[in-house]
Amino acid sequence: MYRSFYDMLFYRVLFLILFFIGFSNTSFSQAPSKFVITDNNSKVSLIFDSRESSVVEIAVNALADDILRLTGSRPVVANNMSNVTGNVIIVGTKEQSRFLKNDVIPASQVPVGWETYSYTFVENYTESIPLAMVICGADKRGAAYGVFDLSKKLGVSPWYWWADVVPGKKDQLTVNPQDFLSQEPSVKFRGIFLNDECWGLNPWASNTYEPEEGNIGPRTYARIFELLLRLKANFIWPAMHPCTNAFYKNPENPKVADEYGIVVGTSHAEPMLRNNVDEWNHHSMGDYNYMENRETVLKYWDERVKESLNHESFYTLGMRGIHDSGMVGVGSREEQVKVLEKIISEQRKMLKKHINSDVTEIPQTFTAYKEVLDIYDAGLQLPEDITLVWPDDNYGYIKRFSNESEMQRAGGSGIYYHLSYWGRPHDYLWLSSTHPSLIREEMMKAAHYKSREIWVANVGDIKPAEYNMSLFLDMAFNNEKFENPLSEKKHLEEWMISIFGTGTGEEAAAILWNYYQLNFERRPEFMGWSQTEPTRKTHFTAFSLFENGDELQKRIDAFDELSQKVRELRGHIPERLDDAFFQLVWYPVICAGYINKKFLYTQKAYKYASQGRSSANDFARKAQDAYENILSETKDYNNQLLNGKWKNMMDFAPRSLPVFNPPTKVYWDMTKEEGWAIATEGNEEIRRSKDIYGPLSLPEFTNLTHQSYFADVLLKGLDSLQWEVIPSENWIAVNKSSGVLSGDFGDKQERVWISVDWSQFPEKDRSRGKVTLKGDDGKEISFNVYAKKYQVEKEGDGNLFVENNGYFSIYGENYSRVNNGGPVEWDILEGLGYTGSSVWVNPMKSFTSTDVVENASVVEYELWVDQRCEITVHIYCLPVHPLTKGHDVRIGVGLNEEKPQVISHKTYGRSETWKQNVLSNSAKVTCRFIVQEEGLNTLKIYAIDPGVIIDRIEIDTGGLPNHYSVLPETRCIPVVCGN
């Protein structure tokens, strides 16, 4: 018998193993090293049960088509096991599929919860099926997500059709047979709002893709719904502008939504699934006025509720005007509250009567958009089961988050967020330019404050918002992946790699990141410095030609650099992906550069003409060329891509606003000008050659920061000039010593950069020299160069900030010290802001404000001031809103040990201040102090309200230059200000 207890245990275990091997056809043992979908010898079969929902069948057939795209061979799709041999992929839900009964997969792999799915690899499924991959969904959408997730892993992008991301061909398709069980989505309902579609989606659908419908119809919606499923979304607010037929006008539209498992709702202005702009007939129905036309209004809603029975719907409650306007027929705020409460009560009676006697089981939303938020704040009482949807301010900054009591609502809360917008102060419908870091920062606050019932993004026409739409929906599906700052930057890189491959994908992501960063300073559509509603003419930009290193030219150069990288990268893109590259990278980056150049070159032309520069006409022509290039690129988008697949989709001038107009054609007669001249940074005047020597000078140089300033040598009527630069001192450095100007296009002026070589600077603390430009006509022009050498001693490792020609420039994240310990704390927020990062009062750590400012957490910036003076401190914050009704956006600001001044950048309604804030992504607050002692001083900023984000700080001591962009930081260089 057994020699020991361990021998007995060994043989019993061996017996059990042999038993299962010999007598069980279905095994959960270790699967092979790979699951073959297709190779030279075999291909997989796809199996689903005919009793499954249509979305499962749609997903399975889409997977078959994806395998065809990848391999050139489409697998068999069947709903029975007859004559099936070889590996199979079985797709279904536990409740419906006959193929998943009888413990085909272990209990631990059965998905439970909302829209979850699992992958399980089963050996010896039958005698003729050696290995089965089982995709099991907890529900119909869970099963579909599992299928489309597999497609993505195999190499088919969710954007294979909508952005023409053609997958590469593969001889063999395999997957790692690793069991997997998904988590529930972070947000229950995740989707998009098709909006302002009259310049892209509607004309494309009506004339190109679905001309038989003559509108956005079921074929177009089927394409959109497939994209949503591939992006793991489940929800839509259909298109609703006057150009578009109401969704329910064609009964095939809701039918297609049901087939694809997409839940249909309507926007903040469309209660009870009604599209008022198309469906309310004023002539036959009277005014859309509940107070004076109650019975007709109620009947209108009631008919749609009955029609929506058996469709998956999310009902918007309340009432506004016909379109995006306030409710008519009511007066005071108190009356609005009472009437809206009565309307909601009657709407719920309809739902209870026609949909479900337990009205709390019916998905319902109340969107507190624009004036509706004021009504809600006035005391509107909402049933607890209604989902309260918080909107942003249309420009990416969420107006409100749930407070502690609202977080407890049974219906929860959600977010309506804009990635595209029509309205005041200005539209941004053309190019998608919302910074991914802003999306992450705002939406992760929403997740933190439990707004997880519904997220819906206004994506305009879908194109060209492909990436931001993907980011938004990926965040909605899995919040956890985006908890850390810069996770969005990693996401962009991974997204681009999934399309263009390693190397190329990283380069494309870096280009787009810089594109978003430039557009964060000013969106392309805002470059005319104009507004709409009412529409106003364009103006010169606020970028300075003569200060801050010529901000106009620096912005032009930045876009030129990006455009050059795009052109070089396109040469490395495989031909099959060239159309995708054009749509996702080329068109937005190149055209954003062109619209910037249109305005910046125009501004240069007029300013230079006023100075008599011969180059003025060249810049006017460059502005015209930029406009013509936008036309050309847009024509290619509409006509050349895939032989016109996207014809009518891209309109570079939606609503024909002035910002999209061609530049005014101008020509200045410069033949009356004489000679040549120079222009130096900091001076709008120019120095002519007849002014041999004068007081013209550059801003002062110091050894505390790295500085360089420019001087332009320019023609004023001459046809040519040979020139040379002659510094008077060996410590004056120039980047070029000579040059030639001519009357040729683009060759009428040249820029020289001047700096100081401190290793050659004399021992004395201050010195003056001059730079002389000498022409071959024998004439000379000179300007002064002043430089000062400081001796600065500091203590500690923190940063020290110094004055530069009458101002300090500080990047918020580069503080000297931080002392946390108050109710809320300071943290660095990477990736967001003009400077690339910010410092913020982290709302993820605490929800509490403080009124005891002196005990608050404080971030400190150490300043070295060389004289007693008055200073004006400008703090540039991001224009976020108070977290809840009970919060503000305050900080305390103090100098040294002075009592801090409490200031706020809170705005009200759509004030002019708010308009300027969202146009520039900056909210400036200002305070003043007296510096009592020269030397070291400390600027202290106290954390009062959570959520405040400080981008940069500027301190004016009497010389702050005119500028729009961020000024170079005047942080003392370590070699001078070291310990």
From TrEMBL:
One of the Pfam families matching this protein, by short name: GH115_C
BP GO terms, sorted: carbohydrate metabolic process
Keyword tRNA-binding: no
GO MF annotations in UniProt: hydrolase activity
Location of the Gylcosyl hydrolase 115 C-terminal domain: 801-968
Taxonomic superkingdom: Bacteria
Keywords: Hydrolase
UniProt keyword GTP-binding, yes or no: no
Protein name: Glycosyl hydrolase family 115 (Putative glucuronidase)
Organism: Marinilabilia salmonicolor
